[in-house]
Amino acid sequence: MLDVWLPLLQEQVRTLPVLLLQAAALGGIFSTVLGLRDKTMPLLGSGGLVYGWVLGISGFLLLGLAFDILAMPSKPYLNTDVLFLGGLFGGWLGGLVCWICMVGGRLLFGGLNYGYVAAIDMGILTLGGILMHRWALRKDLAQLSVRDVGLVWLVKMVFSVGSMAVIAAMSLIPVKTGQNLLVLRLLGAGLSWVILGGLLVLLRREARDRDAADRALAQERTDPLTGLPNRRALREYLDSLAALPGEVSSTVLTLELSNLGPMVRLHGHSWPDQFWSQLVEALRAHALTCPLQPFDPRYFMLSDLTLAIVLRGVTLEQMQHTGMADHFYAELSDYLLRTRTGEAAPRLRMGVAIGNDSRHKSADAILRNLSLALQSDTRPLRFFHRSFEEKALLDEKLRVLLIDWISASRAPLAYQPKCDLRTGEVLAAEALLRAKDASGRPISPPLVLEVAARNQLLIEFEWCTVETVVHAIGLGLQTQRPLPLAVNVSAASLTVPGFGLRVVALLRMARVPCELLTVEVTENSPVPDIDTVGESIAAMVSAGVKLSLDDFGTGYSGLSMLAKFAFTEIKIDQSMVARLEQPRMQAAVSLAQESALRYHASLVAEGVETPQQIERLVALGIRCGQGYHFARAMDLDSLLACGRLPHAVEARVDPISQY
């Protein structure tokens, strides 16, 4: 027995340097492949062909080196290890490619002598690797241990030795040759341990590097305070939806805290972070999200105070027309009230927006414009129908129009007559904003004021409307029609120091009697109780400018404002006039009429549309009104031509539609 082992051991020692060089080259090649491999692909399973080709070509070259260059009786090359690794890393497909390359190399360099035996031997070794591949797929590669290396090595040795046993049992090679090959494989067990262990260590290191990179990337995509996916994750998700083939509709729901201040004062500064994470847990589990479940809802923190929910496969129009958005918002509000019985409940605003734009698919642009839209609209439930990019362009055009109007000191106004309810005589008129875009389409007045406020142009634009109305009064004087006109002014203008004195100076410069101008202050816009406001109002009233309180009874502290300022006119809103058939509303209007008389003011009814309303108003003692029963808003020439208006007059200014 020693006569057999000793020569083979000596031969193994002589070939060891060559085998070690081959092992080092194999390790370097494998390390390079791992480094170049796409980081988004798993280390095992997907892309097994890559491993098969790399190991197969490497084995092919090692075979050529051993047969053509090394003049040794036993050709030293790592055929058993390469074949087993081809199956282990590449699966059946990679193993098959590796086997074909190795068999082809054996036949090319070694000839047909015992070629079929070599093919069987190589096939058995590859099969062992393929079986271990299934085991490796279930393993956490980052946690590979010495025990795992030992298991892989043991299986490799079993198949290596077993292959010789099968070939010997089939008497495919001489007994002496089989014994020599068996002894060589046993003597090479140590080198196999080094090769398998080294490559598995490389695999484990790559797996750990990937896990570390994934954790770092997850942290970059996660809000640190709530633990929810952040704005970056939202952007990437929207981009991924836009990259899908075909048109994939998506809708973004936004939830914002509208009473953040009181909730923080009550529960502390860390409360919002806990609230959002708890709310998402409730949304995922609670029955109120059932209508959203078919659309694969994903939850993201758009900002510190805004949660975004992305719904896939549903449009904004479907959310609105089916009532899904309204139902979800109502259920959510009710849930927050029910779960916080006896304490202040958080109130949410919800926005419904387009999640992708067929013309502008950049998620960055969508999210940036969404944030701007949310800031400029504070309604409890909002539907952003227009694409944000398109809305931004329209807003910019409107900003340019505002600057042009301000520069020219001429605002786009129309005038709605105020008439005697009994005779139809035109007593005065109110200037109303009636703007149009370049194509002649009407622009919604609230949109004009919103864009003006957002661009810090509101005060300048309101002064422009005052200048336009004063100029219109002057034109009326020139045509022997001294008709009083009213202009709307917000609290923002009244808080500007010297506003009242400036109005009076403008009237005197234009040689317009102050009594012909009325400044309307809307009750829906709270007027701050500060000295600047009082001084401006006092300056105008003392000069003879009339003061009107608009929308009385629908806004902030109407009686308090009547007590503080010398209003000469009080206007009740059209919503009150429309319900005059109700006894309680008649009582409310009577109370408004009594309040006006006590403060020496006249009452004007807005939104008068039917003869029946006129009869009820006259019965309540109200003399003046305005509305479609008499006339729509009209241009100045038409107004100055009016005398008495017993019936509705066709307006020369188109009605306002939504912009």
Could you characterize what this model shows?
This protein has helices at 2-36, 48-68, 79-110, 115-137, 146-169, 175-187, 189-220, 231-243, 260-267, 271-285, 316-321, 324-338, 363-376, 388-408, 445-454, 458-478, 491-494, 499-509, 531-543, 558-564, 574-577, 583-598, 611-619, 636-641, and strands spanning 250-257, 298-303, 306-312, 348-354, 381-384, 413-420, 426-433, 435-436, 442-443, 485-489, 517-522, 546-552, 569-572, 602-605, 624-625. It is an alpha/beta fold and 659 residues long. The strands form 3 sheets. It has an 8-stranded mixed barrel with strand order 6-7-10-11-12-13-14-15, surrounded by 4 helices. It has a 5-stranded mixed beta sheet with strand order 2-3-1-4-5, sandwiched between helices. The termini are far apart.
- Kindly provide the radius of gyration, computed on alpha-carbon positions and rounded to a whole number of angstroms: 43 Å
Structural class: alpha/beta
Label the overall shape. rod-shaped
- The helix fraction, in percent, is 55-70%
> Strand arrangement, largest sheet?
6-7-10-11-12-13-14-15
End-to-end Cα distance, whole Å, is 100 Å
- Oligomeric state of the chains in view: single chain
- The average pLDDT value, as a whole number, equals 81
Largest sheet: 8 strands, mixed, barrel
Count of helical regions: 24
**Poorly predicted segments:** 647-659
What's the short version?
The chain is an alpha/beta fold and 659 residues long.
List keywords for this structure.
5-stranded mixed β-sheet; 8-stranded mixed barrel; 659 residues; disordered C terminus; alpha/beta; single chain
